[in-house]
Amino acid sequence: MTPQPPHQNRKKKFRTEPSAGKVMLTFFWDERGVILEHNMPRGHTVTSATYADLLQHHLRPAIKSKRRGRLSRGVLLQRDNAWPHTARSTVATIQDMSFERLTHPPYSPDLAPQ
User: What is the model's pTM?
Assistant: First the structure.
């Protein structure tokens, strides 16, 4: 049996560090740029209640301060079909805030851009 070169006899040791984990970052923007960047606290889940809270207590004040007059002219909100965005309580919150919702079509391969 032929001896192996010294570099093949050594076990490779890798130093690993724990992952930073997943972080949920939500952006709201318009034609002029970003209105709100919101980080979901680590370990929290997006639910209809947390999404409604985000709209009422973060997005609305951000629009009021960054886009003066936009609330009175109307806000058009486009979102995907994730369940927190389409839940009855979320839809009711959006209606209470007088935001207009744009529907998001379901995914379809024949409608997807190529």
Answer: 0.71
Say if residue 9 is exposed, middle or buried (CB neighbours under 10 Å; 0-12, 13-18, 19+). Answer: exposed
User: Pairing relation of β-strands 75-78 and 99-102?
Assistant: parallel
Cα(4)–Cα(2) distance, integer angstroms: 6
Structure confidence by residue, pLDDT tens digits, 44-69: 889 999 999 999 999 999 999 999 99
Q: Please report the DSSP string for 34-95 in residue order.
A: EEEEEEPPTT----HHHHHHHIIIIIHHHHHHHSTTHHHH-EEEE----HHHHSHHHHHHHH
Six-digit token string for 109:
């391969």
Give the three-state DSSP class for 8: helix
pLDDT band at 113 (very low <50, low <70, confident <90, very high): low
Residue 18 identity (one-letter amino acid): P
Report how far residue 90's alpha carbon sits from residue 95's, in angstroms, rounded to the nearest whole number: 9
Helix (H) or strand (E) holding 102: strand 99-102
